[in-house]
Amino acid sequence: MTRRAMVRSVLFGAAALGMAAARFDTAAQEATPAATPAYGDPLPSWADGPLKQRMLAYVADSVTKGHPGYLPPNQRVATFDIDGTLVCEYPAPMQAYFAVDMVRQIGEADAESARAPVFQRVLAGEFDDLTTVEPPGFLEVFDAVNGDMTQQRFVAFARRWLQFAIHPVTGKRFIDMVYQPQLEWLAHLRANGFATFLVSAGSVDVVRAYSLPLFDIPTWRVIGTSYDYEFAVSGGKGQVVGTSQVVALTNKASAIGLHVGERPVIAVGNSDADLPMLQYANGAPTPVLPMLVHHTDAEREFAYDRDYSWSPLVAGLSDAQAFGFGMIDMKTDWLRIWPEEPSPPLLASGN
Amino acid sequence: MTRRAMVRSVLFGAAALGMAAARFDTAAQEATPAATPAYGDPLPSWADGPLKQRMLAYVADSVTKGHPGYLPPNQRVATFDIDGTLVCEYPAPMQAYFAVDMVRQIGEADAESARAPVFQRVLAGEFDDLTTVEPPGFLEVFDAVNGDMTQQRFVAFARRWLQFAIHPVTGKRFIDMVYQPQLEWLAHLRANGFATFLVSAGSVDVVRAYSLPLFDIPTWRVIGTSYDYEFAVSGGKGQVVGTSQVVALTNKASAIGLHVGERPVIAVGNSDADLPMLQYANGAPTPVLPMLVHHTDAEREFAYDRDYSWSPLVAGLSDAQAFGFGMIDMKTDWLRIWPEEPSPPLLASGN
């Protein structure tokens, strides 16, 4: 174990949060889907209109044998971006706050780690305001969080942080800032035999900390930036360890080729980084449903697109009509944004 | 499209096998599990004895709430090797025959491709007897098959070949040489909420050509050697293309970390290359069931272990007792080896 890994285990180990973990363990393991569609209308938080009709018709056709839009189950593949598509990402993605906080805590507890330049910059407050950060300059903060611990331990750290972390503007927990309409859409797709996947440029193991309790999506349906995992064996017992070698997800369609091996027919995103997923769907010989969330609601959430430096939407807006993207206008298409109930507990023992 | 890709599409394109494809399309898409367990005994092809009792008890405990062996659904993860574990791999894996045949056909049809040394060696008959081949020297044959076509097209090529290809010793189709007892074991696990994964050192996209019709396992639960997939867009429509950059699966446990993100509790293999999966399972705090198939049946299949150059079993035999591996003695534990019915058609349109 490296020194940084030891510091991590003191800071975030089971003892520190043992009581909370014990209390939440069982509930989290038995987590059920966060949304249950109302009887009669599977998408009650979506405003009636052409987009909702298109979504409902697409799913109905895909399960109707003999219909030209019928899809055999193995072709019912739906891929979703996360930040800005399923959860709030403004003014910065929750993974960015997580990374700054992890690095700060490690740096405050361990003088040796703190000597590294990236720790110095975090401790000096350079990343306290994430709205002024240029994302490429932030990559080393993400990298400083990774490495030198088992996958299970890293996921558990992320869970403990996410369980309580608060959004800097709204004061809500990050995990309560999921989009209720999307929970309904995911549940409706699954009820009709679609396999739903999360595809994020963020760390796959941070997403795996919440994918099941928040979205009813198991760890093996999560695709993201990962590490060069190492395998360590001692006395016949093995552990998978995330090294500090980051393997960035650079193209979402290529990543789907590797991990899914089947073209998505439904692809949902909110930024230009998601366009490869939508274009890949559009290359199918069958009917498809590519969609983009457009953040237009400054009152209930945030309004942004072209100028959002973390993940701008530019080409997506100009291509939308020509390529048949279903544009989700948050202000008019979503009757409500946030779920009525808080998200279920994340803490779980792992294995 | 490269010249080699063009030759491939002439050789294996839809036109050449159009009639067969049309005939099989619907059936393959609707493929059902290859095995349905008999009522009362979910493992009728397994001989009664301590191993079968251990398997049945493990599964029964894992779904019994309150039992110390109970596992929440997200921890019910079972990973299976393919060659020699689920299908016959002797005297050489079916992927090796596929590779030689693909390279030979391309070489015979295209003088330019044929000039490359590896094509020359295949055309000169150097790999006609795969029992005399040293596997490391064979890697370039595998590599020569890859590259320069969409993932869907490559999978379709593999399907067309596998549909009819015949094992050189038994005269049966390769796809009919699946192990009936393992089909029952996979089905029993799934009936009890286990997620089943295939983890092979072979090409992931060849396995994806048969995983659903043969094993009821969708493409996204297949892990294997892959390519550096590229994404190509034209007119808003995208394609995922397998390049010739091979990304070899070198450690099965690390690959599970990347693709599954949850530790397996059941891991089944038949060679030392599978040991990382079994060791990773053994590192769990919960009860686990690591298993090895031992090929002991020279009459009904083949008898081999230490001296099988393609994938020897040496350490697995010496470690078995100390580390609690459930050893499957093919001769005594399996009442039958092959299914009564031929495998369902593989040909499918893809997407």
Structure description:
2 copies of one chain form a homodimer. Chain A is α/β, with parallel strands linked by helices and 351 residues long. In chain A, strands 1, 2, 3, 4, 5, 6, 7, 8 and 9 form a 9-stranded mixed beta sheet that branches. In chain A, a hairpin with a 6-residue loop joins strand 7 and strand 8. In chain A, helix 4 crosses helix 6 and helix 4 crosses helix 7. Chain A is globular, with a radius of gyration of 20 Å. The two termini of chain A are 19 Å apart. At the A-B interface, helix 8, strand 4, strand 5, helix 12 and helix 13 of A face helix 8, strand 4, strand 5, helix 12 and helix 13 of B.
N- to C-terminal distance of chain A: 19 Å
What's the rounded overall pLDDT mean of chain A? Answer: 89
Q: Report the sheet-strand fraction of chain A.
A: 15-25%
Overall outline of chain A: globular
Largest sheet of chain A: 9 strands, mixed
Radius of gyration of chain A: 20 Å
User: Which protein chains are joined by the largest interface, and how many residues does each one contribute?
Assistant: A-B, 56 and 56 residues
Quaternary structure: homodimer
Structural class of chain A: alpha/beta
Q: Specify the number of helices of chain A.
A: 15
Give me the strand/helix succession of chain A.
HHHEHHHHEHHEHHEEHEHEEHEH
Helix content of chain A: 25-40%
Uncertain segments of chain A of ≥5 residues (pLDDT<50)?
13-38
Q: Tell me the total number of β-strands of chain A.
A: 9
